[in-house]
Amino acid sequence: MRVLGIDPGLTRCGLGVVEGTVGRPPTLVAVGVARTPAELDPARRLVQIERAVQDWLAEHRPEVVTIERVFAQHNVQTVMGTAQAAGVAMLVAARAGLPVVLHTPSEVKAAITGSGRADKRQVGEMVTRILRLPEAPRPADAADALALAICHLWRGGAAGRYADAVAGASRPTNGYAAAVAAHARGGRKA
């Protein structure tokens, strides 16, 4: 599975693509940061982020996009810009017909380091180890994007397969299964 992780931000939007399968270490496909100038109008900055995400989708062809879930911070301006960038990324991915999955920062940290309270340095170090890189991706937004993608490979992919299995198991596939399902409803037909 190929996953594009996006660490949204109005000034720096981290982008990282990894590829992997269950039971094998993920591999780095690409990593980078889309930067927008602070003096530019916010709407124009969002257009630049939109173009960057479109370019990454076209170039790297991920199967799923995972984005950090925005959470409340003390700085309202930062939260607003982050939420706007996340919304643009979700829109671009949805327009491309790709599934979009949100992961919380603590979920990503726990998946990558084993602790939901890990700091950025620890996340960067573990991303470097997991992907067998010579050095940590810089800036931290790039490492965070890779961490999101890895988290999804390890957690989201398994959760998706589990949900599919549960959904498949709940659908009657033959007469016997339909009879069992009807019995479970008290003998009433669906």
TrEMBL record:
Major subcellular site: cytoplasm
Gene Ontology terms, MF aspect: crossover junction DNA endonuclease activity; DNA binding; magnesium ion binding
Any one of the GO CC terms: cytoplasm
GO annotation terms (biological process): DNA recombination; DNA repair
Co-factor(s): Mg(2+)
Binding-site list for Mg(2+) 2: E68
Active-site residues from the entry: D7, E68, D141
Sites where the protein binds Mg(2+) 1: D7, D141
One Pfam assignment: RuvC
Catalytic reactions on record: Endonucleolytic cleavage at a junction such as a reciprocal single-stranded crossover between two homologous DNA duplexes (Holliday junction)
E.C. number: 3.1.21.10
Compartment(s): Cytoplasm
InterPro entries per the UniProt record, alphabetical: RNaseH-like_sf, RNaseH_sf, X-over_junc_endoDNase_Mg_BS, X-over_junc_endoDNase_RuvC
Cofactor comment text: Binds 2 Mg(2+) ion per subunit.
PROSITE patterns from the UniProt entry: RUVC
The entry's keywords: Cytoplasm, DNA damage, DNA recombination, DNA repair, DNA-binding, Endonuclease, Hydrolase, Magnesium, Metal-binding, Nuclease
Residue ranges of coiled coil: none
Protein function: The RuvA-RuvB-RuvC complex processes Holliday junction (HJ) DNA during genetic recombination and DNA repair. Endonuclease that resolves HJ intermediates. Cleaves cruciform DNA by making single-stranded nicks across the HJ at symmetrical positions within the homologous arms, yielding a 5'-phosphate and a 3'-hydroxyl group; requires a central core of homology in the junction. The consensus cleavage sequence is 5'-(A/T)TT(C/G)-3'. Cleavage occurs on the 3'-side of the TT dinucleotide at the point of strand exchange.
HAMAP family: RuvC
Subunit architecture: Homodimer which binds Holliday junction (HJ) DNA. The HJ becomes 2-fold symmetrical on binding to RuvC with unstacked arms; it has a different conformation from HJ DNA in complex with RuvA. In the full resolvosome a probable DNA-RuvA(4)-RuvB(12)-RuvC(2) complex forms which resolves the HJ.
Family: Belongs to the RuvC family.
UniProt protein name: Crossover junction endodeoxyribonuclease RuvC
Species the sequence originates in: Naumannella cuiyingiana
